Each structure stands twice: as structure tokens, then as C-alpha cells.
Amino acid sequence: MKADSELSKKTALHSTIPAIYRSPGDKVFKLIIFTLSSAIVLLAAAMAIILYIEGRPAFRAFGHASFLSNTVWDPVAGIHGALPFIMGTLITSFGALLLAILPALGVAVFTTEFAPKGLAQIINYMVDLLAAIPSVIIGLWGIFNFAPFMREKVYSPLYFWATEHAPGLLPVLGAPSNYNLTTATIILALMIIPYTVALSRDAIAMVPQEQREACWALGATRWEVMSVAVLPYAKPGIIAGVLLSLARALGETMAVAMLIGNSNRVPFTLFGPAATMPSVIINEFREAVEHLHYSSIMAVGFYLFVLTMGINLVASAIQRKLMLKKGIS
Amino acid sequence: MNKKLQHQTAPEVRMETKKLSVIYNKTVYGVRDVDLPIYTNQVTALIGPSGCGKTTFLRSLNRMHELLPHALVTGQALLDGQDIYASKIDPVVIRRKVGMVFQKPTPFPSKSIYDNVAAGMKLVGIKKKSILDGVVEKALRDAALWDEVKDRLKSPGGSLSGGQQQRLSIARALAVEPEVLLMDEPTSSLDPNSTTRVEELIRELRQQVSIVIVTHNMQQAVRVSDYTAFFFVGEMVEHSPTKDLFEQPKEERTVEYLSGAFS
Amino acid sequence: MNIRYRYLRDKVILAVIVALTLTVVIPLAIIIVYVIVNGISAINIDFFTQELGSPSRAMLGRPTGLMHSIIGTILIDLTALVIALPFGLATGIMMSEYPEHVFAPIARLLTSTLNGMPAVLMGLLAYALVVKNTGGFSAFAGSCALAFVMMPIISKSTESILKITPWSLREAGLSLGLPRWRVTLSLVFPAARGGILSGVLLAFARAAGEAAPLMLTSFGNNYLTLSMSKPMDTLPQRLYSLAISPYRNWHAMGWAGAIVLLLFVMLTFLIGRITVQNMKRKARRLSNNT
Questions:
Q1: Residue C172: closest CA among chain B residues belongs to which residue?
Q2: CA distances from C214 to A24, A198, C208 (A)
Q3: ipTM of the modeled complex
């Protein structure tokens, strides 16, 4: 036994282990990992720099301020102002957010606090599935099913009602077209709901159980527990989630491009066509033969990048603060 | 046992720390200026109230802190006279010489019992079956687990009971034949029977390896150790042969702790 | 406030919450049913075996299909995966295994920001980087654009899966004197394999549904090509063209394409979800038991 142990000691341990199984190997591995990882930094940097460089001719021709504030986008005349698309993006995104918040919170509250576990899981699956449906398929459904339905059953009756009873509303409503601002906004709301739900769900799940129990112990009803103990606690997380959903909405491309009607003539009307930053990129990029036109689209892309980047950074700052507060690093 | 005899002939020092401190986030001391010898083929127990730095100290003995962000070690930890924190020293090699057993048994879940024990060899390129078979059997025998598992070496490590898993972890640590074995409350998640087994094992193992054991259980320190060091709020207060420390403590704080003033 | 009023209020609010939940779930059901009903009636053998050709083919009732788009999708997406995988996995490993490194939080921030970036911007970037420099729209440019989409998703899912595997596993490995890379590749990775794989699958599914970046890079093609340096067709981008085309037959084909794409995306999604959930459950059991 003793001799055995001596032998194994010699063969196994004291024959020196090759360098790759010691720190030098670790250094090589680390170098490889970190070199490959730097791609993520390069990607982010490349997006900012290249979109800026490609957009520079447009910035030179119009200046940042007037590029952002000019409402005329006329490729034929060589005039490019991005304001219509910025307005379209902001209107549809905030509109969608407003539409989405309540249903999303409803789902989050229902699944975390009210629904039996099995049902909650099914609903969660379905909502997550909604996020997985490709944008272009939602657009397809919108074109052939939702948009015609809304025009016939909602927009036209409303418009005719307004012509008779409230003519003052007509400039806001606009003549109902097949593809329009409202349809795009509703679809957009449907598409961001899964994100809002998922993030609010996480925020609600992070509320410590003691918070709830303390409230139950006071004789609170279910809703009182929810409104007194849970929602206030989860609020910062929900706000961060809403911001991230907003970022999603700003960048959502295909379904909106398919349903918004693509008109850059401002002012937009509720039932009339409009355009957003992503939709103009999709619609005009492949036809942009003029260099200035191409550059202006890239410039729109650059500002879309800045906008989503900004919102994402704010949201992750809120989330980080939250994590710190709860002692999770 | 013949403890008297032991400290008449002062045992050989295997490891020794000199003014060793562990600092978290540049400001908070986990432990501060600890000087402690670890003797060859002896069991040294580290006791003290929770949060006193005994585990922090233990982990500094095989450079385990390097994985934690913001942990800094100053001072020296000498293994056979050589500072393990010296710049040319390879931490990977140090961890082969100074093994560790954790609070919770940590079998590699996807690996068989055999592969668990052989992991320290196999994964550094030692793949000869003739060598591995011998090492695995010896380690399992030394960990008093061989008879229970010899017929199912291929079954997953996770299929064993908690006590067996902990002995498997010990066998795995022994397989790389460390000079020093660090044990961080190795019985805290075990039932009384398994605890007894592991304690017996520790007594036997000291013949081939120097052991440092962190324990929150003073009786356990008395049962298994030859020397005991008492830690309090990041400081090593007292170190002496176990019997002396428990029967005639020199320091006021040790007396208070032993009498249950703080736990 | 009396208790009856309070209970009544609870009931009313529950009713509202259920109604809100239904407003989310019902449209989803409608979309799926609509795609399936329309898709099934439009799908036939030609769909899988013919290329699209010119509009006249469909008008004259000659056989036409989206075989070329399906093949194109597979080619472009797999190439994108091959490009994105090493970078995505490495970033995930870096963020979870080297948390002490200053670079880790930066990468984490950029990963989550890039995750929220509109895919159409990835298309613009790939256009400027690849299409402009290689002289034309190409399948390869499309793969690059989709790789940009996949990369942050893979990093993020890899990181979060690796983080589920208990830290004690790494310490146990290191305490045996194993180098960190061995611990990562031989102990941590196998324990997380299923989860990582399904994360990759989810990234793949997500990218496979993207049309916008491809419209700016791989452009589309009515005919089959296997050359990565030529414009190539893909299902999502073809669906868009079919939907906005004036031909009724093409609309039907759009539905057939939609059901194929939807089933593919849903299937990968389900597989991914179930694997991740199983892993989480296993990890939880592991940390409870021991």
C-alpha cells in the first residue's frame, strides 16, 4: 500500500503538469475569450460611427438642427427633413405604450398574484410566444385581416358619424385609409405587450414575500395587498420595463412599415397614412439611388440609434439602481 | 490520546502565514495580520463566532479569493517556506498542493463516481487507466468510501447520500495527493451518523496530510484537532494545542467565547 | 370602509384584470388561427419544390413555390449562426466566468443595449460594411446582418445560463488544482449545455424571423441560388414582398410561407423554453438538496 502510494505520487503529481494545464493555459484561454468578446464593443462602436459617417453628407448639406426640424422630405427635390418620421415614431410608440400598459400590467398581475399556477404558466407561454412571432407575420395578418376590418367596422363609421355630429374632429381623424396611423399603433401595442408583461412580471416577482405577508397579516384583501405592498415596491422595475418596451416600439419595423401607409405628409391624421423612422428606411432604402437620399436615410438610422441607445441606457441605469438597492449584484 | 507528547516535540511546520490580511473592496478587512503555523500531519481547527473571518482565512490558504471581485490579500502565506502569493508562483499548482473540501458536498453532477475522483487527474491530461484506477481506489479507500461504492463506480456522483457525497468530495481532493487539506465546516450539512464517519476519517487522514478545519462546533474541534486557533472579528486571538486552548485559555476573549458569551 | 365593499372592490378589479388579460390573449389566438387556416389551404407540394419565378407564372397558373426562399433562409441563417457563435459564446463566458474583470460590466451594458437595438439598424450597418465594400447585395451580407442580431442574444442567454450553474461547482474544480479554462469547459459548460443550446436556438429563431435587415443586405431573388455572393431569397423578406404585391396568388403563397415560418419559430421557441425551464428546475433542486 505504501509503495503504491509512492508510485502514484511520482507518476501523477511530480511529473510536471504541462503548461496548458497551469496558469499559462489560463492566460491563453483568457486572451482568446477577451479577444472574441471585444467584438461586442466593436459592434456597438461600429454602429455609432458608421451610421454617423454614412449620414454625414446629409448632416453637411442640411445641418443637424434643420435635418431634425424640417418637415419636408422630398428625395426628388433633394430636400430631406426627418421631422415627419421622428413625429411618426414618437406618436406611434407613445400611443402604443399607452395602449399596452394597462393590459400588460393586467396580465402581469393576473399571472403572478391571481391565476392558479397552471393557468398562469399557460398564459405566460402564450404571451412569450406572441413575442416570438415574426414581425412580418403580424404585418401580414394586419394587411389582410385587421386593417380592412378596422376600416370597415371602426374608422369609416366613426368618420361618418363625425361628419354629421362633430365636424370639428375631422381634421384630427382624417379620411380613413386602408393603412394608417391608428392601425399601426394598435398593432405596435400588441407587439410590445409581451416585453412589458415579462419585465413587469420580473419586477413583481422580485417583491419579497414578507412584504405581502405583512400586509395580509393586517387583514388586507387581495387587491389591497397588491396596491399597498406589491405595486409600489415593484414600481421602479415596472418603469424600467416600460422604458425598454418603448425602445422596442421605436425600432419595430416590418409590421409598422406594412400597416402605416407610408406617407410623410404632415400633419398626420389618426385615420390617415403616416411614416416612422424604421418604416422610411425599409421603404426607401432600396430605391435610394441619389447619394444624398441614401445618406439622409443613414442619418435617420443614426438618430434612431441615438434614440434607442439613450432609452436603453436610462432603463438599465434604473435597473442597476434597483439591483443595488436590493443587494443583488 | 498522547497529546502531551506531541507538543513536547514541536511538530514540523508545513504552512505558515505572516501578517496575512484579506481586504474586501479596499477598505473592509476580512481578516487582519494573522500569523499562524500549520503543522505537518496535524489537524488545526479554526473556531470563532460566525463572521469572524475563519472561512476567509481558510480560503486565503489556497488562493481561492482570486475568483471574487474586489478581494485583496496582503502579507505572506508560506508553504514549505515558499510564499504562495509570490509573483512567480502559479495558483493552479498551489491548489494542487493545498486541496479543499467545502461546507456542502460538491460532486460534479454530470460525472460518475469514478470520474469525480479522477477529475483532478483526467482533466489535466493524465488519462492512463492503469494509473487512474490505482489513484481512484486509493483515494476512495482513504476516504472510507470504497466498500460502499466499489460496485457502482459508473453511477453518477449525485446518486449518493449526503454523507457519502461529502466523503466523495474528500476522496476527490485526496486523489491529487495534496500536502495540505482545507476543510470548511465539512460536516455542517450532514446528519449525526455521517458526521461521526467524517470526523473519524479526519483523525485517520492526518497521517498522510496536514489538515486545517473550520468548524462552528467546539466539541468537534476538541474531537478532531491537535491545535486550535480562535478567531474573533477578523483577528486571530489565540493559537495553542487544542487541549490547552479549551482548558486554560490565555486570552480574555477566548474565555468569554468558550463560556458562551457570544456565539 | 366596510368589508363587503372591500370584497366587492376586489371582485370588480379581478374582473377588470381578467378582461385585460383576455384582450392580450384573444388577438394572439386570432393571429395564430388565421395564419394556420389560411396557410394550410395554400400549402401544396409545389410550394416546397418550385421556385417563385416571374409573376406571370402564378398568373398563368404554372407551378410556383418558395423552395428557393426556404433554402435561402437555411443557408443565410446557418452562416449567420456560424459567424455569431464564437463571439456570442465567448462574451457570455466572459461575463459569467470573469465577473471580477473591469470589462465584464461594460460588456453587459453593451449586450443589453444591443439586444434592444432595432434589427433594421443591423441591416444598415451590414450594408455599409459589407454590401458597399463588396460591390453588391449578397447572401453573405445578409448573414452578417443576422449575425449582428444573434450575437448579443447569444451572449446574454449564455451568461444567464452559466450563472444558474452554482458557483460551488467552479470552486470545487479549482480546489483540485484545475486551471480555470478546464473548469469552464469541462465542468461548467457540460452542466449548462442544454440551456446554452436552447439559448442559441432562441437566438436563431429570433433572427430567422427578421425581415428588415435582410431587405437591406441579401435583397431577395425570385430564383434559386446557392451562391453566398449573390442576392438570395429568404422567407421573412419574401413574405413582405408577397404581401405588398398586387397578385392574389402571391398573397396565398404568402400565407403558406407564413405558416412554415411560424411553425419553425414556434417550435424552436417551445423547445428552447422547455429546456431552459427544466434546467432552472434542476439547478433549484440541486441547490436545495445539497
A1: B106
A2: 43, 28, 10
A3: 0.93
